[in-house]
Design brief:
about 375 residues, Rhopdopsin 7-helix transmembrane proteins
C-alpha cells in the first residue's frame, strides 16, 4: 500500500517535473532553459525508475531493470551544462561539451545487448538482486564492470560534475562585483545542494546510511535535494517557464561593470531586484509594450514605484535606459512570434513594427540598430537561421 508521500512523489512530482521539462525543451529559448528542461525530464525518469525498482515491482516488471542506469552518467553532464550556459548564455555547444556525454553513450551501447536480449536474462538479473537484496552488491555480468565498480564510477562522475559546477559559480561570483542576484543565488544554492547530495549518494553506495534500495524510504529523498530546489524555484517563480523572462534574467548577469554610482547607497540596490521582478511580471502578464501603454510614468504607477526608481532599475539591472528596455521586449516578442508562427516570417517590417508596438518601421529600425548594431533584415535573417 502506497503512503501519501509515495503517491505524491511518484505521481504528482514526477508529472509536474515532466511537464516542466517538456515545456522548456519544446519552447524556443536559450540553451540554459533547454538543459534545465532536460534536467527535469531526467528527474522525472529517475522517479519512475525508482517506482518500478521498489516495493517488489521489479519482479513484476523485469524489463525495467537497468533502464535508468545510463542516465546516472547523463544527469551530471546535463546539470553542469545547465549551470555553464546560465552563466555564459552567449556561448555555443563546442567539442568539450559533447565529450561530457561519452560515458552515457558508452554505457548505453554496452547495455543494448541486454536490453534487446531474451526476457530470461532480465528475470535472472532480477533474481540476483532479490537474492542479495541490493541493487549494487550482487554478481552481474551485464556490464563490463561489476555493479559495485560501476556505482563507484557513477559517483565519481557525479562528484566531478557537482564540484565543477560549484567552483564555476564561486569563480563567477568572485570575478564579478554583483553578487546579490536571483540567478546567482539560485545557482549557488543549487550547486551547494548538489555537493550535499553526492555525500548522501556515497553514503548510499557504502551502506553508511540505512537506505533500503528495494523499498521506498524517506531517506532516499535526500539524494534529490538539488532537484527539489529547482522544482521549488520554478513553482516560486513560474514566469521562468516563459522564454523571454528566463532569457532576461540570465542576460542581466552579463554586464562587466555593474556597480552603483559614486553617490548611491549600495544597500538601496537590493530593492532593484524586487522592482525588476515586478516589472517583468507586469510585462509578461499585461504586455503593455504592445498597446503603447508602456511609458515610464504609467509603468512606474502600475508596479508601484517612482519613475526615478524604475529608470534606475532598468539601468542597473539590464544596463539599458527605460525606452531601450521596452524596445528589447518588443524585439523579443517579434522573435518569439517568428519562431512560433509561420505567418510572421512573411510579414513586412511595417506590419511587424505595428504589431509589436513600435508604431513605425523607422522605430523598429532604430531600436535594432541601437541594441544590436545591425539592420532589421540582417538581424531577423540571423535569428531565423539559428
Amino acid at each position: 500500500m502506497l503512503t501519501i508521500v509515495e503517491l505524491f512523489y511518484d505521481f504528482v512530482i514526477s508529472t509536474l517535473v515532466g511537464l516542466f521539462g517538456l515545456h522548456l525543451i519544446t519552447k524556443k529559448g536559450i540553451l540554459a532553459s533547454k538543459f534545465l528542461g532536460l534536467y527535469f525530464l531526467i528527474f522525472c525518469l529517475r522517479i519512475i525508475a525508482a517506482y518500478f525498482a521498489t516495493g517488489g515491482r521489479l519482479v513484476q516488471y523485469p524489463y525495467f531493470i537497468h533502464v535508468f542506469s545510463p542516465f546516472h552518467f547523463l544527469g551530471p553532464a546535463i546539470s553542469f551544462l545547465f549551470v555553464y550556459f546560465m552563466l555564459f548564455p552567449q556561448r555555443k555547444m563546442v567539442l568539450w561539451c559533447w565529450l561530457l556525454f561519452i560515458p552515457f553513450l558508452l554505457h548505453t551501447v554496452e547495455l543494448i545487448p541486454f536490453f534487446t536480449g531474451p526476457l530470461e536474462d532480465k528475470v535472472k538479473e532480477v533474481g540476483l538482486i532479490m537474492k542479495y537484496h541490493s541493487l549494487i552488491k550482487y554478481p552481474s555480468d551485464v556490464s563490463y564492470f561489476s555493479q559495485a565498480t560501476l556505482a563507484t564510477l557513477k559517483v565519481i562522475y557525479t562528484l566531478v560534475g557537482a564540484a565543477g559546477s560549484f567552483v564555476l559559480v564561486l569563480w563567477y561570483i568572485r570575478k564579478n562585483s554583483y553578487k546579490k542576484s536571483f540567478i546567482l543565488n539560485w545557482l549557488l544554492a543549487y550547486t551547494s545542494l548538489s555537493l550535499l547530495c553526492v555525500v548522501f549518494i556515497i553514503a548510499y553506495v557504502l551502506g553508511i546510511i540505512g537506505f533500503n534500495n528495494l523499498q521506498f524510504s524517506y531517506s532516499d529523498l535526500l539524494m534529490h535535494l538539488a532537484a527539489f530546489l529547482n522544482v521549488g524555484v520554478v513553482l516560486y517563480r513560474p514566469t521562468l517557464l516563459d522564454s523571454a523572462t528566463f532569457q532576461s534574467l540570465v542576460s542581466r548577469l552579463q554586464a562587466e561593470d555593474r556597480k552603483p554610482e559614486p553617490e548611491e547607497d549600495a544597500e538601496k540596490l537590493k530593492k532593484y531586484e524586487v522592482y525588476a521582478q515586478r516589472l517583468e511580471e507586469y510585462f509578461m502578464k499585461q504586455k503593455p509594450f504592445l498597446q503603447g501603454e508602456a511609458s515610464l510614468e504609467v509603468t512606474a504607477k502600475r508596479i508601484e514605484v517612482s519613475a526615478r526608481e524604475l529608470s534606475r532599475t532598468t539601468q542597473y539591472i539590464y544596463e539599458l535606459n527605460y525606452p531601450d528596455f521596452v524596445n528589447s521586449w518588443r524585439i523579443n516578442y517579434i522573435l518569439e512570434q517568428r519562431k512560433e508562427n509561420e505567418l510572421w516570417r512573411s510579414m513586412s517590417q511595417d506590419l511587424m513594427a505595428e504589431q509589436a508596438g513600435f508604431g513605425s518601421r523607422q522605430g523598429l529600425h532604430n531600436a535594432i540598430n541601437k541594441l544590436h548594431n545591425t539592420t532589421p533584415a540582417a538581424f531577423f535573417a540571423q535569428k531565423d537561421a539559428e
